[in-house]
Request: fold
Amino acid sequence: MATTATYQPTADDYKINPKKFALWAAIASICMFFIGITSAFIVKKGADVANGHWMFFKMPVIFYFSTAAIVLSSVSLFFAKKFFLKGDKQGYQISMLISSLLGTAFLVMQYLGWKALVSIGVYLGGSLSNPSGSFFYIISGTHALHILGGLIIMYWATIKAFVRQTNVQSKLGIELISTYWHFVDFLWLYLFAMLLFF
Amino acid sequence: MSSTATHHVSEEAIYHKAEWHAHHHHEHNGHDHQDTFFSKYIFSQDHKMIAKQFLVTGIFWAIIGGLMSALFRIQLGYPDEHFGFLSSLLGHWAPDGKIDPQYYLALVTMHGTIMVFFVLTGGLSGTFSNFLIPLQVGARDMASPALNMLSYWMFVLSSVVMFSSYFVSSGPASAGWTVYPPLSALPEAVKGSGTGQGLWLISIALFIVSALLGGLNYVATILNMRTKGMTMTRLPLTIWSFLLTAILGILSFPVLLSCALLLIFDRSLGTSFYLNEIYINGHAMVEQTGGSSILFQHLFWFLGHPEVYIVILPAMGLVSEVLAVSARKPIFGYKAMIGSMLAIGGLSFIVWAHHMFVSGMNPFVGSIFVVLTLIIAVPSAVKVFNWIATIWRGSIRFTPQSLFAIGFVSLFISGGLTGLFLGNSTVDIELTKTYFVVAHFHIVMGVAAFFGLFAGVYHWYPKMFGRYMNNTLGYIHFFVTFIGSYLIFWPMHYQGMAGLPRWYYTHSSYETFGHMGELSKFISTVAVIVFLMQVFFIINFFYSMYKGRKVTEQNPWEATTLEWTTPIEAPHGNWEGDIPEVHRWPYDYSKENGEGFITQTTPMKPGEVQLHH
Reply:
């Protein structure tokens, strides 16, 4: 088995890194999850508005701030990647830290938003709940889980940025992180618009 | 491609090489060349070992799932008799040797769930996608061997959760494999909708994660890690079928996850997505109002229909390959085969509502789904025509795998034809929820997919284990299973046309169906015999692993594809030297020059024209 050492794929063999590709496929998969759930939302709302079952409520204002936080965290991650490729270690460290903190702020504000929903009488479940509220919690909640997954990787990368020498050669990690993070950011903008306008 | 050429190599390639080295570091390091038992057989990252793990787990589930069907067929065939062994096997679920009606529903539900997900998705696609993708595209391993291992262990975890539901006091899930609410949401409706259904949902969620991790790897490997010269139109049809299967899985399983998630919330947290003012015995069972159970059906069947193609496409791929090798002829209509698979894959996403013709949908909407459904007959017919044309006048080698492949074509035709009846909403309204439906889907996607699986196992067993399976046992296995399957499912069509309903615990208590008792008894007897006869396969499989005739030639079936260019006992990494380069398509059989077959690694001769239908 030692002979496997002769293995050397050339650039021609891999037009795109298989792991990057797998991430894009995973993104397609996550999209299908949210397409499924939001189409259920649209169909259900259409039927319930028609028969008067649907409960309308005003989205708590904190969700606007959380949306701003997640957009800013994407912006800062965009610069983190630039700093990384330039080899600017300090810039990279600081922008990674800012991105992670903004991501955390997003999650905290989502939580405060759910508390605000409860205070205006919008519940996830139980006899006082209505599908309009349940959908809001489940759509924003499953999205928050995707943010949480990304955030764990972000913190791991941030810690790595401070304790280890960065190597411009191995840019795969930062590329994978930014692709995923920008995706969950855009995903939230879509879900936010859906919950706000539809 | 010597090591001095590093500066030409892309950074991704360096990354990949470094990873490969890290993985095998201990082997270069000297004294310990052996993998430990755990790293070789349990937590292996070698796609070939993971494939075998999927296969053995699939066989375990097939035995359980098959046993379930034998048990409930005993109830259906002999509704008035008592069997002592049922009591000893099922305990309080079969008092006095007769299966409890609630447990009968659990058996039916678990049989469906196990066969569809654990055997024909995990066991079939999991085994052969893992085994054949790197070997046939010319890659060392999957894009991410670690995620691949994780995919298998999520499958195991999901299996453990599902299996544990047999041992909870209220029994396993009983609302059918389609788990329609409100039946699946209320333990008051059926006992199995208590803890058993909860475990079912958790298990399926884990299964979805496993299927997604596997699918991402399959797609990434096929599209990005093909060896030099392996263009998309030089891929064996097996690989095309695995690619489309994986894409269908990636796009449809998440929708099942969202569907199951909403059900979990309805069951546990009092939301009302699917539930609406339900009364049992005059008592309000749920406080929720405004839910729609039809919503569940739409979400479920959006996965559910692609799922049947997730089951059948890999079988189609395996059969195409086995038929060409056995008939010593190029596959007829290679590009038409790819095109028809693409068409089937695409159509599978827009026909789901044909499962719901009686759900009260607008007949106009129904007629659109009728048309789309019937269009699937076109690519299916193309495939059948091409398989028959492939073996037409071939010098067929009647090995067990070729018999199973031919059997697959026969079953696919028989089962496909009844699909034309069911795809018409007007006929479906008469036939739905009868044994006609049971007969249809068992032949076309149940037994047929099993035949594809068997063909694959007999064909690639020498590559998997370095030994042959016993042919005599294989022939007995084939003929008993083939004839038995028709004897079981053919009469069911008549029962269904006469209106015999599915899911009923007993038919003998209805005067209308009384005269079918003997026929049901016949079906049940054959079903039990066919189940027991699978022992020929099980014994053959495990016995041959240790005592089978040893493989001495690298390419025992004289096939053209890349997996037969690896050593008989292929190491992790598959090829000992460089990965071979590919120069031609995979079906160069019976060339005029009398060579019989030309491997994909043979360069084209000057002036030779690529044979391509």
Chain B touches chain A through 72 residues (CB under 8 Å). The longest helix of chain B spans residues 101-137. Residues 47-275+301-565 of chain B form a domain with the Cytochrome C Oxidase; Chain A fold (CATH 1.20.210.10).
